[in-house]
Amino acid sequence: MEPVLVVRGIAKTFQGEGESCPALTGVTFDVAPREIVCIMGPSGCGKSTLLRIILGLEHSDAGSIQGVSGSGERGASAAMVFQEHALFPWLSVRDNIIYGLRLAAQEVPEAEIEHRVTELLSLTHLGTFAGSPPHQLSGGMKQRAAVARALAVKPSILLMDEPFSALDTFTRRELEDEILRIRKEFATTILMVTHNPEEAVYVADRILILSERPGVVSVIIPVGLPHPRNPADPEFIRIREQVTRLVQGRPDQEG
Amino acid sequence: MAKGLAVIVALLVAWQVAAVIINNNYILPTLGEIADVLLHPTEPLLGGQSLLANARVSLKEVLTGFLIAAALAIPLGLLIGWSSEIRAYLNPAIQMLRPIPPIAWMPFAIAWFGIGIDSILFIITLGAFFPLLINTVGGVQGVRIRWIEVAEMFHATSFEKLRTVILPGALPGIWTGLRISFAIAWMCVVAAEMLPGTTAGLGFLIMYAYNLGQLNVIGAGMVVIGIIGLGADILFQAGQQRFFGWQGRD
């Protein structure tokens, strides 16, 4: 199948005061339809920058991104869930979800907006909170609303930047399950940055490890375990430990 | 509320005690003498208009100047807050003009607009303009980058960004600016009306009563000014809670 996202040789250097700081060099990978790919790597390896480049919020110095509107052209091919929910506090949950649909770029007819918001509210179990302002929601609910807002425009790929890192363990697992359910029901393709190895092994089909600054894809680990995955399973643990070692930059020490 | 009321009552009692002891209504009129004016707000005062009519004149002037200031300061504030380029050009001039008391412009106002309503409106507008401008700029700068990025991610146009993110995000700051500006406009009107050439308004009434030695009328005028100012502030605060309850809670 044609990949949904083709990333080729992405490089990015930040210009500081007098010094330049390379963040990414030659990052290359594909994401297939309905695939969940997790990006991991040490802090400051450019994971978030990579997502922002794919989304079009930042420009790369070199390389190309195909399959999404990374270069700022119109359309709804990528949408992001940020680390902090970034919901508009002056809008209700419902109005936050349809925010993107109301913009001219999306050109979605009103009846279709109705249909989608109803579907998304039920998918994310936020129906009873549709009219509430975001500050009345729990952390997990806010993040679910942010997921619904991103999904509303039917993006070809859903980008997530450490979306659950501020949540407690139980809420986090709940949302990870929800992501898997959304993928199943919506056939969503997901590219997710996380710093939690267990989360990556729990949801991902493949895990991309970026090396330290400048970030480059050092290894791609396929996770072949069937869903639902059991974190206590020996194979799960083995992959989790392998990922942890790779992120810490010590790939050779076999446990 | 009860605590605030207790202080007001204590001040009134102190006033009354002092007035009775001094026993000279050219220095300190009693509460009864002031209340006598307040309780007959529609009766002509000192051969001129009634208390209410004068208050109405002042309020109308304030609202007009306040609206002119809002129409100028809010768009300009949005622009300055949005563009660092424009800010670099305008900020030094604004910071230099801002501390000049509006009343200091009165001679120029009279020279440019003549004696009368236009000069008064100029002073009110000037007084209300700067606090509203500064707060609008602050409101725009308080809009989170993340919110703007969400709009960009959905390919919002510049105008859509302004309409759906920057304006609503800056509105709490703008509202605070309106509140401060109204209070300042209210001070300006009274001061401006005290200048020669005016024939009505609370400031005029106070000055006129001073010339006639009617301190109880001055006291009544001051009470009306205070009550209108307090009322406006309560309205603005209620609006703040009603519309911007989300502020700082996301």
Annotation keywords:
heterodimer, A: 255 residues, alpha/beta, 6-stranded mixed β-sheet, 3-stranded antiparallel β-sheet, 8 helices, B: 250 residues, mainly alpha, 77% helix, elongated
Structural notes for this entry:
The complex is a heterodimer of chains A (255) and B (250). Chain A has 255 residues and is of the alpha/beta class. Chain A has eight helices and nine strands. In chain A, strand 1 and strand 2 form a beta hairpin. In chain A, helix 7 (197-203) packs across helix 8. Chain B is mainly α. Helix content of chain B is 77%, strand content 0%. Chain B has helices at residues 2-22, 31-38, 51-82, 84-97, 106-113, 117-141, 145-153, 158-193, 202-211, 215-243. In chain B, helix 3 (51-82) runs antiparallel to helix 4 (84-97). Chain A binds chain B through residues 55-57, 69, 72, 74-76, 78-80, 82, 84, 86-90, 99-100, 102-106, 133-135, 149, 153, and chain B through 144, 146-147, 149-157, 160, 164-165, 168-169, 171, 244-247, 249-250.
Topology:
The complex is a heterodimer of chains A (255) and B (250).
Chain A: E1 5-15, E2 20-31, E3 36-40, H1 47-55, E4 62-66, E5 78-81, H2 93-97, H3 99-102, H4 110-123, H5 139-152, E6 157-161, H6 169-186, E7 190-193, H7 197-203, E8 206-210, E9 217-222, H8 234-247
Parallel strand pairs in A: 3-7, 3-8, 5-6, 6-7
Antiparallel strand pairs in A: 1-2, 1-4, 8-9
Chain B: H1 2-22, H2 31-38, H3 51-82, H4 84-97, H5 106-113, H6 117-141, H7 145-153, H8 158-193, H9 202-211, H10 215-243
Helix pairs in contact in B: 2-10, 3-4, 3-6, 3-8, 3-9, 5-6, 6-8, 7-8, 8-9, 8-10, 9-10
User: Which percent band covers the strand fraction of chain A?
Assistant: 15-25%
Helix content of chain A: 25-40%
H/E topology pattern of chain B: HHHHHHHHHH
What is the general shape of chain B?
elongated
Count helical runs of chain B: 10
